[in-house]
DNA sequence: CGCGTCTGACTGACGCGTCGATCATTTAGC
DNA sequence: GCTAAATGATCGACGCGTCAGTCAGACGCG
């Protein structure tokens, strides 16, 4: 795969194709994206797309990787300056809320990625590589909080399983337009999970502070 | 839609087509199912499929409805004889665990349904109709438990949001082959949610009993 | 500097396989 | 013998991938 999908020519053009491809996938869906559509957005021809990528599937898979990598880098930068573990978790949650178009599109990509992975086990390795990063981010933040003495000693892996499951499930509800879930109630639910499972105080601790930090 | 998809002829043949279609969708994916494939399983021709359904999309959408309805009926029957609210919830969870091929396929259908609904808002009404049933089942069971005096007076809707989100998220992890989630840890996680949010005792109550009932 | 050559990005019309849908025809039931 | 049910060859649209060709700029050489 490395040499097959390794781009020829200038990487800016190649990136332009990927940058055009992934929002298209997010909005129309993997199976409804035509090579012609990507070419049109880049202001180029279908031949050019095939000049940089062997086939349509390669464009789409690379676009997937591109999108996930971009998001991961963005999150990493945002978290770098936050020391307090609780605030890191809250910031992590805040960045996952499908509020803007960007994050909504990223969730759409994930949803489709899940579907394809479920149908085609060959994608599992790639998927789990991506997903593990996000899960590890939670686990490491919990451990940090426990070292800082602001979190109870809950099993970090078990907690991360719960938090990420609830996050994914809630995002689905929002994307599908479920009437009983909104961005606000998603935030509230996730913050509540943190309070319930990590807080030192039995009643859940500083809810008010959490809500404020969550909106930052 | 009503008259367009309303079947002609004997309903057994029509149902046979749907019965053949939905596992095919679950295993190969909506977009990879050919009319020819469905016909082949039924031991019939593509013409017959089009005799009962106007187009391919109609077959697939009806198959979706068929699958969801069947599952809902099955669950309703299983729950009918269970009086105790906690045992009802545990049974509900147990039936959602993607352990066998049947339930796995149903989750695959849901996953694809979510994806399509996210991409095509016209499906939202249908999707929310289906989803609401499952959410209501949880809400009503919680209320029942509160009337029975075995559940704390947590907000049933908020609780249902959490439980269903976590369920959906956990199922996705299992279907995508995530290394840190198994059927057992999914069960454990969901039972733990019940204990934490509904149990009368502060420590979570009868975990042992719950685990046993869960396997029934 | 000027000329010829070469390379490599880019084009877009076309071939070809695929698949949904059609419809003339056959078969079965009453 | 009439109607409903079922067939499957055939049509036509669609879209991926190919490939012969264009063009601009780099390069070498006198």
Automatic annotation (TrEMBL), chains A, B:
Q: Which domain of life is it from?
A: Bacteria
* Record Gene3D superfamilies: Tetracycline Repressor, domain 2
Q: Which UniProt keywords apply?
A: DNA-binding, Repressor, Transcription, Transcription regulation
Q: Which residues bind DNA?
A: 34-53
Q: Does the keyword Protein biosynthesis apply?
A: no
- PROSITE patterns associated with the record: HTH_TETR_2
Keyword Ribonucleoprotein included in the entry's annotation = no
Domain HTH tetR-type span(s) in chain numbering: 11-71
| Protein name, UniProt field | TetR/AcrR family transcriptional regulator
Which species is listed as the source? Arthrobacter silviterrae
